[in-house]
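Q: Hi! First time doing this. I have a protein sequence and I read that you can turn it into a structure. Is that right? Here it is:
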Amino acid sequence: MIILLILLIIVYLKVSKFRMVCKLLFVKYAYVAAPTLLVLILLWQLLILKQTYTKIGFDAGLIHNFLKNPHLSTSYLSTYPNNLFLLFFQKYLLNFFNMKLNWLNAGYLSLICTDVSVVLNLLTVGVINKRKINLAIYIHCVFLFLFPMIIVPYSDTMVLPFVSACLFASSCVIYLKNEIVRIGAAIFLGGSLSGAYLMKPSSITPIIAMMIVYGLYMCTLSRREIFSREMLEKAFLPILFIFVFAGIGVVSFNHYTEEQNFVHVQKGMALPPIHFISMGMIGKGGYNQEDVRRTLSLKKPEARRKYSKEVMNNRIKQMGPLGFVKFLLFKNYNNTSDGSFGWNVEGGFITAPVGKGSRGFFQSFLYPTGKRLGDFYWFAQLGWSTILITIILGYDNRTRYTQMLRLSILGGLLFLLIFEGGRSRYLIQFLPMYLILAILVFDNAKERLTRVANGLR
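A: Yes, that's right. Below is the predicted 3D structure, encoded as structure tokens:
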């Protein structure tokens, strides 16, 4: 595959007719080629889902079991109440689409969330720069082609539409001129922000980054400009709507969980946030069953917080300053290096054997016992590395929005360094920022790569 890729690049650079055909098909007639390719990729997703769906382990399986039998022991939901929103979101979608609960339909929900996220990403790019829409479709098609997580109905994929909605709404607030549309976008942003927070609190880093970037920008303005009527309409009024409706969303859901009788959740049983910090300071920085067992053995919330704080301090002392820096570097590697985003890493991820016939062929690329699994890993790593290289080479594109996306990514990496991490599955929630940033800086990266190539000649 590497040889074929090199040959294609050489042919493209040296054979003018081949280059002309490629430009004609994918550039001049991109308005036909891009949508056609997107439709083909959607059909590919349906094929992959139908051929490879199966029972999934770890937390995704637990949520599925609660939807099937809500009278199971709810100690898990009491310990991890952050997954309550995921539980009720799946329940709502199943009722909305009139679906029966099974692993195929649960996969459809994950697929819908992923594709809605892609549509919102494309709309975001359209608001910022319409000329990049076709490029955005091409890049997202590659992403969807190499993203089998659609068969895993968990918060990693189901938070994606909320994150993408935040980015889309924020682009409307920033770039559009119509005040009514901008206020509507601010309300939409508030609702999306509450959904992202309830599904995965770490996924709200784009909004934190936006507040920092545009807050710093406002610091450069004079007092007269800050308190002008124009600034009131463009900044303060949308911000007010964002936080009001985000607050309404969170408060409403908390009230709903207290009133609902679908599952029973015992208050005061949740693991404290500092537990996930201390747990993220041992081994690879990921899940540690022994840490969880010991913390859960303490029944009072205050005792759990005190114990986790002691464990955290002891681990920092044992590592020392240099050891702690080394650990963080190693943890960041574990958090970011895997282009498959932790495929097959979680306990009991996929336990089914590879089947026969056409299902067996597709499963052999994705199942743990599949003989072609390494091929999937290879292509996934190539796609991930290409995205990262594009972002790095396009570093001189420094609009406020691209800076916001960069800060969002850094914020996400910082969160994973502080809390439980250890595998790149947690990066999925931040993928909209990576994809949109790669699209926006693509021309800068291409120009720099061209200059480097010309210099080598």
